[in-house]
Amino acid sequence: MAASRAAVAARQARASVKRAVNERRISAQSVLEVALASTESIESTMKVRDLLLAIPGLGPVRVARIMEELGISPTKRLSGLGVHQQVRLREFLDRRAPMVPAPTSSTLVVLAGPTAVGKGTVSTYIRENHPEVCLSISATTRAPRPGEVDGVSYYFIDDAEFDRMVEAGEFLEWAVVHNHSRYGTPRAPIEAALAEGRSVLLEIDIQGARQVKASEPSAVLVFLLPPTWDELVRRLIGRGTESAEEQERRLRTARVELAAQGEFDHRVVNTDVQTAAAEVVELMNASGAGTPVAASYRTKEN
Ligand SMILES: Nc1ncnc2c1ncn2[C@@H]1O[C@H](COP(=O)(O)OP(=O)(O)OP(=O)(O)O)[C@@H](O)[C@H]1O
Ligand SMILES: Nc1nc2c(ncn2[C@@H]2O[C@H](COP(=O)(O)O)[C@@H](O)[C@H]2O)c(=O)[nH]1
């Protein structure tokens, strides 16, 4: 009984160390050094995998790859690291450190891009793998697609409710998208998350991105690009959620939207979902202070 109470206490202590790393109150490097200095410490009983997962911006897939590269088995605890593994892990954490800023302010990041480029897919990946990021849920007057859940995918509301929210100033931004339905970002949850020091990701269209930048100049705008125009068309048709007429309408908008990529602070090419999501999260962590990501991309038309 006493042993199981001790085990629960140790688990809770490890969880609070992980939270402190995740909230950037302590660095992963200092956890490693404490673990290696004392085999009695709670830090020494932590798994390497859990320490890496606590670092903002690292999800399970990247952590698995990093551990493989470092030659550390997935179940290894900090106390069990060999000398060479310690050196490699230390070097990795030191390399990683400049990408994890000191606890300063939260960031408002806007992810936009043409239809079917994968904004929703990349955002969902971020929601599932980076719980530290707060993903805004938009309101829309369009009908739910099969599988979409009210309050998770969108708040599905009617025209009268949308009008009321516009009148009451409850949207940070809103727009008619693809000349069809209205979409808007509810202001209150975003202000609350930013006030708590959390970073917020908005997945919205380009008109909305412009409005956010106009009202919040510190917002970081990220433009998601497809690897090629043909791949964009393939993704839209392959998704199969729009009629041929709606696909045509969306592709017309996409050509105009691609021409606006230069207005954005950063560009990320979505060739692979995991990599694109990791780049977006790293840009969030860098609070827009870094150099814009270079992406050479031309549509067939230009
Ligand atoms: N990196 C990728 N490689 C291959 N397919 C992808 C990739 N990213 C997304 N897709 C696929 O492309 C299609 C469109 O993706 P998604 O619905 O996320 O786009 P979107 O940008 O949110 O579109 P919209 O603006 O029209 O809502 C989906 O079928 C998705 O599975
Ligand atoms: N300006 C805004 N655009 C938004 C918002 N939420 C989503 N969107 C964009 O709408 C299109 C179409 O989305 P779909 O789910 O119908 O395919 C897409 O570009 C979204 O990024 C919002 O709150 N404001």
UniProtKB/TrEMBL annotation:
CDD domains: GMPK (cd00071)
Keywords carried by this UniProt record: ATP-binding, Cytoplasm, Kinase, Nucleotide-binding, Transferase
Coiled coil regions, renumbered to chain: none
Binding site for ATP: 113-120
GO CC entries: cytosol
InterPro entries noted in UniProt: GK/Ca_channel_bsu, Guanylate_kin-like_dom, Guanylate_kinase, Guanylate_kinase_CS, IHF-like_H2TH, IHF_actinobact, P-loop_NTPase, Ribosomal_uS13-like_H2TH
Source domain of life: Bacteria
Record protein name field: Guanylate kinase
Species: Cnuibacter physcomitrellae
Gene designation per UniProt: gmk
